[in-house]
Amino acid sequence: MSKRPLKEVLCEKMIELMAKDERVVMVESDLSRSNGTLEVRSHFPDRVFDCGIAEANMVSVAAGLASQGFIPFTTTFTAFSTRRVCDQITLSVSYAKNPVKLIGTDAGLTGELNGGTHISVEDIAVIRGIPGMVIVDVVDEAQLKQVLEDAVLYDGPMYIRMSRKMVEDVYDDSYEFDLFTADLLKEGKDVTVLASGIELPIAKCAVEELAEEGIDAELIGVHTIKPLDAETVLASVAKTRCAVTCENANVVGGLGSAVAETLVRHDPVPVEMIGIPDRFCEVGLLPWLLEQNHMTKDDIKEAVRKVIARK
Amino acid sequence: MDRERKEFLEKEAKRIRYLTVDCIGSLGEGHIGGSLSIADVLAVLYNGVMNVDPENPKMEGRDQLVCSKGHAGPAVYATLASRGFFPEEWLHTLNQPHTLLPSHCDKNRTPGVDMTTGSLGQGISVAMGMAAGQKLKGSEGRVYVILGDGESQEGQVWEAIMFANQYHLDNLTVLLDYNKQQIDGTVDEVVTLGDPKERYAAFGFDVQEVDGHDVEAIENALLAAKEVVGKPQLIVLHTVKGKGVSIVQNAAFNHYMTFTKEQVSSMLAELSE
Fold first, then answer.
1. Which of 134-153 (B) contact A at CB < 8 A?
2. Residue B162: how many CB atoms within 10 A of its CB?
3. Neighbour tally for B264: CB within 10 Å
4. Cis peptide, bond prior to residue A157, ω within 30 of zero
5. Complex ipTM, two decimals?
6. What is the pLDDT of residues A86-96, one digit of tens each?
7. For position B1, what pLDDT does the model report?
8. Please, which pLDDT band fits residue A246 given cuts at 50, 70 and 90?
9. What CATH code is assigned to A6-162?
10. pLDDT on residue B107
11. Which chain A positions have a beta carbon within 8 Å of B129's beta carbon?
């Protein structure tokens, strides 16, 4: 388990980035307290704009700031960072080339006790359909810090989804991150396991236990879902001849879809997909929600056995 | 305003109408009504009120225009061409393959267009970020927004004007093209704006109301708006959709019209008188 919730990391890192680069600004919509970023405005009172509960305006104001040379970060829950502002992201951000960095917290099942209204199963699918968007699903503290640094450097619009709570750490401070390259965590020859966000530590456990069964899985952390690092995916399945994708989002339109789209074009091999099975979620805590949606370590192990049998 | 300047601005407005008709006429169809209604305010803005440089369209610290009713692109293009931002011949490329003049305003294509618009309600909201950004930079640059009256039915418009008040965006002026017509009927028949002056005043704006086809009244209002401190400003422009071209002005529906070559010639002749 992580030392602290990711929202604390987000706040600390934003203060650091804003101190380093005066172009970085934040545009909020009355969830700074929930997302941990309330403290930022005490450091930079003129560079945080709270739009109130008005997400469409938040995204468009951020687009306007971007057009004047600023690097705006918006924060709200994933639901209100994507589906609620889909048109604003499409036209005023991506089409108009106003490079806003949209941060969505409470990604997927980590919405937990806010329940089905807030667990936005569709966020990745919604944003993937918009040309020009980069989508990152963050797993832990070390990765979040590097994603935010790269978000300042990358001159384009991004959607960054994350938990705001305690998470399982995968990486440490020695982590070398590249925005457009997936992370090869463990080499293997029998199956390629591709995982993003909070599913990565779960997949890591599954891969370790599969080794005890004699299954040698290759584990790849896919932080950037769009554009997908097709080169790494294709190089891996060229060796393993099958893949399992694991994501904390609807399997329709997310990581599984992105991987399948790549494979059917270049190297069609069997794929099994772990993720929210195209359904709305109930209210509940994460362990129970993972079970309900067949996204546990055991579900991943079963998917691996199944996909190997399909080879 | 002296008589010479008034005549000059009226001539510029007529020229913008001529070029707008020429632009849409080259294609034979387009958003003509709402383009003609804003010709006068555009003439005033781009001939002395706004600090812009046709030789340097992205000049730092310039004044910027957001045509939030993005479908009025042809009027904006006519104005920019008339001021020399690009050759007038470009107006004949409206909506042609690879054109730099698409139906709706696009800042990444057209020299002098400051913001991409087309999904109603968003332009005014983006303008808030532009104005806030100019203030943060310590720039003197102002932001002008041309807002449709029907467009004001979008909820995002009211999110934006609450923001303008909260952040005291006195470098932002909203120009409401109150032509009182929208696609499905009059604004009052569809969903009324009531008295926009009262509504904006209640939202903390400095408000003025003028005849949107009187260049002198428009210029006086714009100059007065520049002097307002601590408040964003609204100028209600009482306009006529299709103003200045009989076939359009008298049409029962003139939001988007199709024209024969003969009609285009007749409209251009009317504007040449």
1. 134, 136-137
2. 17
3. 18
4. no
5. 0.96
6. 999 999 999 99
7. 86
8. very high
9. 3.40.50.970
10. 98
11. 27, 49, 60-68, 72
